[in-house]
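Our working data are protein records whose layout never changes between entries. The record below serves as our worked example for the rest of this section:
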Amino acid sequence: MADRILFRFWTIMDYEEEEQFLREQHQKGWRFKRYLLPGFYFFDRCTPEDVVYRMDFDQAGTGEKPGYLQLYRDYGWEYLFDVNSFSYFRKPADIIEDDLEIFSDNESRLEMIRRIYRRRMIPLMIIFLCCVVPQLIIQSNNWLDRGDVGARAFTLIFLVFFMLYVWLFVHCGRKIRRLRQKYERDV
């Protein structure tokens, strides 16, 4: 059992903030133990130290995973686990020689952003356009055609989910654009 459990919401494009959050927790004496969707963090008490956490998104296929993990181990990174296609790594900051990054260059960072976009954002947009938008139209027609309280309540709930979906797209889209600009400047 973990000594501390925290709940924190983050999106797939907030991975840099996620890494910083985990580093700060370790500096306060809380070592990241495991993660449980939709946002529960489990920590064990430890000696406060500066430990760098990094995440990589779905880099290796199933057959390539051992070689992928060995590459990180060779560079001193401890593999923790995978959650939602993100691989979590950590390494004490005092043994990191030149850089705190797992990526050797900005082109690698840009490639990770492309993978996230292709494997998460595009499928979510397709679901949104093919399922959510048509369902919202149907629910709006139900709202107008019937005075049924249950139908109206369902429509309101659906509208809340629709707005949440729109917010997530806008948030992630802005983060993707910022990260691309940040990394393209230095390529």
In short: Residues 106-185 form one domain.
